[in-house]
Amino acid sequence: MRFSDFALGLGVAVFGIAVLLHVRTFPEIPGMQYGPAFFPGLIGAAFLICGVALVVGSVVRGAALTERFAERPAWFGDRLAVWRAVGVVLSVVAYALVSPVLGFLLTVALLTAGLLLLMGVRWVVVVPLMVLLPLFLHYGFAQGLRVPLPRGPLELLLF
Amino acid sequence: MAEVFELVFRWDVLSTIFLAACYGLFVGSVPGLTATMSVALLVPITFFLDPVPAVAAIATASATAIFAGDIPGALLRIPGTPASAAYVEEAFALTQKGQAERALATSLVSSCLGGLIGVALLAVFARQLASFAVKFSSVEYFWLGCLGLTAAVAVSSSSLVRGTLGLLIGLFISTVGIDIATGHARFTFGQLDLLDGVSFIPAMIGMFALSQVIRTVTTELDSVVPKAKVGSLSGEMVRVVRSYWKNICRSAVFGNILGALPGAGADIAAWIAYSLSKRFSKTPEKFGTGHAEGIADAGAANNSAVCGAWTPALVFGIPGDTVTAIAIGVLMLKGITPSPRVFTTDGTMVYAIFLAFALANLLMLPLGMVAIRVARQALSIPKRVLMPLILVFCIIGAYAVDNTLFSVWIMLGLGILAYFMEENGIPIAPAILGIVLGKVIEKNFLITMIKSQGEVAGFFDRPVAAVLGATTLLLWGWLVVLAVVRAARARKHAAAT
After folding, report:
1. Are A98 and A149 part of one and the same domain?
2. Is A83 found in the same domain as A48?
3. Residue of A nearest to B183 (CA)
4. Which residues of chain A from 25 to 64 reach within 8 Å of chain B, CB to CB?
5. Is the distance from CB of B81 to CB of B28 less than 8 angstroms?
6. Final residue of a domain: which of A20, A36, A71?
7. CB B361 within 8 A of CB B63
8. CB proximity B484 to A under 8 Å
9. B388: which chain A residues are within 8 Å (Cβ-Cβ)?
10. pLDDT tens for residues B271-323?
11. Which one in A156, B213, B348, B404 has a CA-CA gap of 20 to 30 Å to B418?
């Protein structure tokens, strides 16, 4: 999603104002001018300035209202591409939500298979990868590097 | 010196360097996967290694990835990493003339020599800089941090406002978590996991790897297989060194200095070295038609820049590029605190890192030749298969750093953020420097303020600090003037048409 200078500037300026308002709730150090709010406040103000600069720039160029606020990327027209992007994001979400219940092996096997199929890879390639990749990663990270990967039914059965 | 050799010439270190070199060559030669991404994905594994192999792995992977970026550049006209973009046309023109071996041999030998000269310069410069910088106090560090951030914005290819926006996003992320002065939790919104701040490695993996995965699956999923034939390499390499050794030396020195500037990494070094090469060449008319001279210059410059970036990283803790931004995190984790005293406190370790770097560059010669031969196979792995695997690595990598699922959420959030930033022309590199330097700048600002009891004059009352401060302020002024002039010119141009 590509935003016009005007829209981007507005968004950035609003964010800057939000930061400035929020840092007012930070405590002050008695007798000190510069507390926890100082640095974030400075950043908030700089966001505001950048936002205003973008808006003013687009108004001066006369593009403020003629330009579309947001340009859809070309791949939005390709339904498969959209699904692939959604699939990528959802699989990260799915790992975060599901892996504590299903365990590492099962979650990664399902995610690998799902993603590969979504990319249009044939089953002949998908099946060996969905079996070998989780085992390989489990071997490397859990056994080799001693990372406590989430355990599920398959781990209990195998290890 | 014997201790240094003992630290490096151990089977675990040597095998780590070998594996990291293979990994770097692979990642670099796949278009769309950058050197920084290779390092970001490597970090979770370095967590579990000893300090020397850990840092050696990072140095090796980055050096070899930068060279390997030239392979698809020469064969397919697709640069494997942004650092190869400067001379991709030149290399491909050679391939089209049926001289792929000349293009690739030039890249390989100039990368190797550039890297070796770069390491030598790094060892000399860093030592000199460190002995000078021992006297630095919080004020100098504050200004150095500011100067680093300003340089990062100045060299970013986009507009001043967008470069600054990238920087501000990074600085803002660095303020999340407990405030150093009062212990107040800032922008955590009740999330206990955020008290320590946004963890850096998941952030890197998200911003470099996940965003790239999203971009690839949406726009560039279909890859091509190279058809070019590659002839004998070793003979070409000798010829290249004989004709262009002066260019290689000159550009290695130049690239090293550029690499040491925060924000100006290997890609910028390559662009500038290529254009300088053309300007100083006796046969500038041959440039663009498949002429090895520019490739020799730029190839040496980008690999030397990779080494140069370590100078400020080791001495000041200020990264010279995005790879060293990640490396600083690993150094700290391994108990090596970057500072001017690093040569006294961890001298052996630092020299061991230099030696590992040199070894990596030497190893690149034989491995690079193999990589060029097998590139056809690596390049023909379809991205439809590669992308899901990289995504799974991203998830595990983010999780393995501190074994919390929260890191996976951070990776996702910042990955999507980075995707939107790039879509809107906001550069990522200043954001990374902002995340690394934000806390440094704030801490040194507060210490200086407390020392000078709130007097702004405290920022200029030491000679070095005054020079650094004045330089920073002048640079800011110059950037603003430049932006205004550019805007005015653009308006005039628009009015004229």
Report:
1. yes
2. no
3. A36
4. 26-27, 29, 32-36, 39-40, 43, 46-47, 50, 53-54, 57, 60-61
5. yes
6. A71
7. yes
8. no
9. 111-112, 115-116, 119, 121
10. 888 888 888 888 888 888 888 898 999 999 999 998 999 988 888 888 888 88
11. B404
